Each structure stands twice: as structure tokens, then as C-alpha cells.
Amino acid sequence: MARLLIVDDEPDAQRLIGLVRQRARYKPLYAKDGFRALELVEPERPDPVILDRMLPGMGGFEVLEAMRQRPS
Questions:
Q1: What local confidence, expressed as pLDDT, does residue 72 receive?
Q2: Where are the alpha helices (DSSP H) in 1-72?
Q3: How would you label 3-42 residue by residue, b for 16+ Cβ within 10 Å and e otherwise?
Q4: pLDDT at residue 20, rounded to an integer
Q5: Distance (Å, rounded) from C-alpha 35 to C-alpha 37?
Q6: Measured distance CA(71)–CA(56) in Å, rounded
Q7: How many beta carbons lie within 10 A of that of residue 64, not counting itself?
Q8: CA-CA distance, 30 to 6, in Å (whole number)?
Q9: In angstroms, rounded to a whole number, what is the distance separating the alpha carbons of residues 65 and 23?
Q10: Which fold has domain 2-69?
Q11: Mean pLDDT value across residues 39-55
Q12: Are the CB atoms for 60 and 31 separated by under 8 Å?
């Protein structure tokens, strides 16, 4: 089953997106901030990522840039 990483600091948004994606046969993974998202990228290797732009601590664009700079 493909893994989907949902990065959002709003629990309700995470649940709603996760429910929709489970029906599309994705295993949802959740992160409430960019730092946790980056921790999950290596071991889980999610297929798509849904990323909120306005996250606490590290914004969505910063997270995206950090993901792009990783060799894998």
C-alpha cells in the first residue's frame, strides 16, 4: 500500500485528508510540523506528500526545500 504523508498542524484537517486518502488505498502518515515530517521522510519514503504552507517552526516551503536537498 502506498504511503501518504500529511503535514498539517490542524488535527481536524489531518483526519479529514487521511479518511479521504484511506479510501483511495493510501496508508496515511501524519506530522504536525515540518521537523516531524523530515523525520518521517527517510524511513517511510512516502509516495505523495500533502504539505501545509503555514506550519509552526518551519514553514511548508522550507520543508519542501529540505526534502528536495536530500539525496534519496
A1: 66
A2: 11-23, 34-44, 60-69
A3: bbbbbbeeeeebeebbeebeeeebebbbbbbbebbbebbe
A4: 79
A5: 5
A6: 25
A7: 16
A8: 5
A9: 29
A10: Rossmann fold (3.40.50)
A11: 91
A12: no
Question: Which of 5-9, 16-20, 28-32 comes out lowest in average pLDDT?
Answer: 16-20
* Alpha carbons 64 and 23: distance in angstroms, whole number: 26
> What is the layout of strands, in order, in the sheet containing 49-51?
26-31, 2-7, 49-51
Residue type, 9: D
The one-letter amino acid code at 45 reads R
Sorting pLDDT into bands at 50, 70 and 90, what band is 2? confident
User: Distance between CA atoms of 37 and 25, rounded to whole angstroms?
Assistant: 21
Would you call 59 exposed, middle or buried from its count of C-beta atoms within 10 A (0-12, 13-18, 19+)? middle
* For residues 26-37, average pLDDT: 92
